[in-house]
Design goal:
Elements lengths: L1 H5 L8 H8 L3 H31 L5 H8 L6 H10 L37 E11 L2 E10 L5 E7 L8 H11 L9 E4 L8 H9 L3 E4 L7 H13 L9 H17 L11 H10 L47
Parallel strand pairs: 1-4, 4-5
Antiparallel strand pairs: 1-2, 2-3
Helix pairs in contact: 4-5
């Protein structure tokens, strides 16, 4: 039935007639399809969480990982089968692929490969990471402006559902920019189901984002790095005992990262100060920043907001750098 539903444009008969022949209702089939999609979405993201666990715990068995993640929609045997299919068994070499090839999975083209960053709100990048607390996993979603490195949105959750991860983080980012974001901004992520969920895509469509996805982790290097910075440079050094404390400490870490931590790639300015200078330079030439999005390639440092492009002709039209004040 799923095959005929996906290929329905290529057959002369209607799906309603097929439902009658099979003996199911249209509502029943779509309920089944919705449930399967939700499971596929969570499965895709669990594969990413397993990959991260493997980095921290190279020899942890799959059964131990199951009880740590405790996926409510997946039993132990199915979880171990998934680990085996994805190459995460300890005795086997890990597969290079991180996502499952499940029915209903959507993948967007990678729009940032080779792209030159020139302004704020050109590319936002996002990723979901885990934080282990008393043998329980919680999840943190970050959204980063790739030009200024400012964390514009984030969310802490106990589940991997879209409405608890990517969706509230994106809503926060839109509020952070006061709803004033340019048409065509690229939203880049991995292939997790939270980034192609129907509700999430409805929000990106409403604000005219361009959805972009990577196939491998290094193609989402900036978002991957911010995971490590917040977890390893901040959270792991503070006392955190429950979800409430984790939420408060993530708030604190993001605030310190955005407003108090100088960045070498921003000429030792904080992301907040970098954006503030850009706002003050409205009407003048843009700074330029040419770099790779790949985590395993050398990164060129960004030009200071007060350092103009020396190689451009004097009569070349240049749009001014714009940004609202970030609170």
């Amino acid at each position: 039935m799923i095959y005929f539903w996906r290929e329905r444009e290529g057959y002369p008969w209607s799906l309603n007639s097929l439902y009658r022949v099979v003996g199911i209702s249209k509502q029943g089939f779509h309920k089944f399809l919705s449930t399967r999609r939700r499971h596929d979405d969570e499965t895709c993201q669990i594969v990413e969480i397993i990959r991260q666990i493997r980095v921290d715990h190279p020899t942890m068995c799959c059964r131990a990982m199951y009880f740590k993640i405790n996926p409510v929609f997946m039993g132990r045997d199915r979880f171990e089968t998934l680990c085996r299919e994805q190459g995460f068994m300890v005795q086997k070499k890990r597969s290079g692929h991180r996502t499952t090839d499940s029915t209903g999975v959507v993948r967007f083209d990678n729009l940032i490969e080779g792209l030159e960053l020139t302004k704020l709100n050109q590319v936002w990048s996002s990723d979901i990471t885990y934080f282990e607390l008393h043998n329980m996993f919680y999840y943190i979603t970050f959204i980063l402006d790739c030009f200024s490195r400012l964390i514009v949105g984030y969310q802490i959750s106990s589940r991997l559902l879209t409405e608890q991860t990517s969706l509230p983080a994106l809503k926060m980012a839109i509020r952070k920019r006061k709803g004033q974001i340019p048409e065509g901004i690229i939203f880049h992520s991995d292939g997790g189901g939270q980034y192609y969920d129907k509700a999430f895509l409805a929000l990106t469509k409403k604000h005219k984002f361009q959805n972009s996805m990577c196939e491998f982790a290094y193609q989402n290097g900036k978002a991957e790095r911010i995971n490590g910075v917040i977890k390893n440079n901040y959270l792991k050094h503070w006392e955190i005992n429950d979800l409430g404390q984790l939420t408060k400490q993530v708030d604190r870490a993001v605030r310190l990262y955005n407003t108090d931590k100088p960045h070498s790639c921003l000429h030792r300015k904080t992301p907040y100060d970098f954006e503030k200078e850009l706002a003050n330079l409205e009407g003048q030439n843009k700074p330029m920043m040419t770099e790779s999005f790949d985590a395993n390639l050398q990164i060129d440092r960004a030009s200071s907001p007060v350092q103009f492009e020396q190689n451009k002709p004097q009569n070349q039209d240049v749009n001014s750098a714009t940004s609202g004040k970030v609170s």
